[in-house]
Each structure stands twice: as C-alpha cells, then as structure tokens.
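hey all, quick one before standup. I had two proteins in the batch that finished overnight and I want to keep them in one place so we stop losing track of which output belongs to which input. First protein below, input sequence then structure tokens straight from the run.
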Amino acid sequence: MGLDLYAGTLTRYYSGQWETIVQQSGNGERTFVFRPPGSLIDADPSRANQQVLEWRSRVSRDLAGVNALPEPLDWPEDLEQPYFTDKPDWPCFGALVLLAAYTDAGEPAPPELPEDWEQDPTLRRMEGATNSGAEVRYPHLYFVDWWLPVGDLPIFNTPSPIKKPIRIASLPHLLHHLRDLNRRTYQVRASESGDFYVDVPPREERSLEALARAGLAIILQVATKASLHRLPMLLDY
C-alpha cells in the first residue's frame, strides 16, 4: 500500500474531490485510485461538509473537556480552498521519521532503511518518551497520521470522521520540527518559488540519507503550503 500526502480541507478529502500527484501527472493516461468501501463520507460536498463540521465540534468538546484546548478547532472547510498533494511513499517517510528519532536521541542513524523501520528500537524509545510526557525534540513526527492547523494542540488519538483510529498532532509544531531537523541535518534549500529541491530516489534505493533527504524536502514543501493556507495535512494510504 503506497503513501500519499494530502493537505486541504477534510470536506474535499472525504467527498473525493481531489487527485493524487500520480493522477494529476498521468501523461494523458487515465489513472485510477481504488479505495475501500467506507473511505468517503459522501460524494456530495455539502453533506460531507456537515459531517466534517460535526466531527470537528465533537473533537473540540472532547479536548476542552479535559482542558487540552483553549479555543475550539477552527479552519476554513469549503471547496474554495486549494489543496496540495505529493507522494513521499513509505520509504522516504519512514527514513525521515528515523532520521528525526536518531537526531532526537543524539545517535548516528543507520546507513540503510530497515524493512521493519516502524519497529526500530530508537524510534520506539522516542515514541515511548513522547507518550510519557518526557522532553522530546520532535514528538509531532512520531506515528502521527494527521496534523491540524492549530498551534496550541496536544497529540491525541481519536476516531476520524469515518471512524478510523487516527493520531493527530499540530501542523505548526510539525513545521517547526521539520525546519529544526533540516537545519541540524541536510539543510535542504528552497528554490526562488519557495519549493524545496527534491530528487526522489529510485524504488530500489535503501540509503537512509537519500530517502530521508527526499522525504524531508517533500514533507517540508507540503507542510509549508498547508500552514500558509491554514489547512489540515494528513497521510493518505
């Protein structure tokens, strides 16, 4: 199962009114993305929007009820908003997360991306420290599915609008993490247009540095645009 990155309204996402980067660059050929039943709320954006807003209100109430949110969640939720997408795929994303964990721990990262990178002991140690409330440099990168455009937001677990378990964190915090990690590691530069230079490695590449560099550039690019437009960003898989 591949991994795409989506930044845009949840209304657009859950009514299917968007295309992956592969669909957009189909070179004249029709590209289909097959999604399991129940992946959409409703193909009608107005009905999807109503359920998304109800979900957001419920999450706001739940967080406020435990004193974890000073103000209700709020961002533009209409189809007038733009959307952005790219495809880091799991190797580039996993390498980025491992780079963050090893940088966080002050340890040298492995030269190659392990097949079971999610079970990496250093990553799991950083995840455990995050869950215990210990001081962690990049907590909003570890095993998170969604990032909302809200600054003062804790990391929490909740069902999505389609009842799928997800882990949510703060987009502003994530962007700070990515910029800090970039400064401490590869110093990937942005072009004059503001986009970050990226050279996606071939499918057979296992070099953690090559994969993490590409993942960092891709996710920095999409997260920067999401932050500029105050849009949620999520992993699509």
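OK second protein, same deal, sequence then tokens:
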Amino acid sequence: MSSQVRHLFSLGSRLALCAAMVRPGTALADVGTDHAYLPVWLAKQGLIRSAVAADIRQGPLDRARANIARYGVSNLVSARLSDGLDQIEPREAEDLVIAGMGGLMMIHILKRAPWLKEPARRLILQPMTKAETLRKFLADEGFFIERELAAEEDGHVYSVMQVSYSPQKRRENELFYYIGKITAETAQGRKYLQLQNRRLKRRANGLSKAGNISQANHFFSLAAQIETLLSSAPA
C-alpha cells in the first residue's frame, strides 16, 4: 500500500456512507463536489474507473482541482464547472452522487437529466433537507430506493439512499416518504426515526392549535406508526 493511501484523509460519516453505496469499478459523477473528497478517496482506493467532480461555483472547483493534483489522481478524476448535470455526459455517470444539498435542489437537478431513467444507473443521494419531498418525487417518477441508511455527523442525522429507475417496484405508502427504508436496527437509524417522529408531532400539534383536527390526527397517526417501529426494535 502506498504512503499516500495510508495517510489519505478520512471521509466524514455522510460521505463514507455515500462511498459505500458506489459500485466498484463504476464511472462516477459527483455533483456539488466541493473539495472532491469523495471521488479522490474512491480513486485512491482503486474503487472507481473514472470520476467527474462537478460544481457550479469556481471556488469549490479550484479546491477540488487542488486535491485532485495533491493526491495524484488526475488520470482518474477530472474537475468540471457544471450546473448540476448540464456539462456531464451520460457515459460519465454510471453512478451519480449528489450529497450535501437540499432535497428541492436535487429534484431540480434530476428533472433536467431524463437519461437518468435507465435501469443500469445508480443515484446516491444524501439530502440535507426535504428528504420526504425527494422520496415522493422519486416514487412519482418511477425511481426505487434500493438501500437507505442513516448517518450521524456533527450532531445531526441524515439519510443516504441508493436509487435506481425501477417503475415496477414503486412504493407509495405515505409513511415511506418520511422514513424511507431506514429502520431502527442501528443507533443512527433510531435517531433518524426519532427525529421524524418529533417533526410529525410538531406538525400535528400546530394543526391541532389551528383547529384542523382531522389533519392533526393524520400526522399523529404517522408519528404513532414510527413509535411502533421504535418500540419493536432490538435493544
């Protein structure tokens, strides 16, 4: 093992979980790459065939280029100024990572790339906000969440999902939009479910105070379903 690999930076838990969902030997596109930590790390580990590290801003792209050069992966990773996937060719994105941005922005990016609706592709998505809106969009568009796990970082808990286009596998249960495939089997999963439970209860309480009892009871019911999942989880 080379000294550069031995002394390679560690990914945070969010990006480490994203990296674990990237298929070995793939052509990767990392949208909103910032420092290009994810593609550089995967390239140094010999886990990808190629990568495009894309960002809409010049500053982050300059940092990405510096890291690509520093770790000697220019033969595998290129940095590119791109608004979402606008400057990325389909052949360059067998696996696509979008991490560290809001769910609504992700939807905006995905809508502009209809070629993502090819079953062989995989999307690895890590929304910072509006995960429930993103899950509903994915289901409505025929995408299917193959795997989903929770990651905890800096006191916050996030969802990371691996997605493919599989309209025959659509799932539209409303609770699914709030918790996806995250279970209470891990500490991070339990924290994610607890977070969603609190959010649903806050929404229900707000509706109740506004006199909308029917809608309030609906969200209280969703929260109760999460509590059932938590109570049945192994200690």
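Flagging for whoever picks this up: Residues 3-182 form a domain with the Rossmann fold fold (CATH 3.40.50.150). The chain has two domains: 3-182, 189-231.
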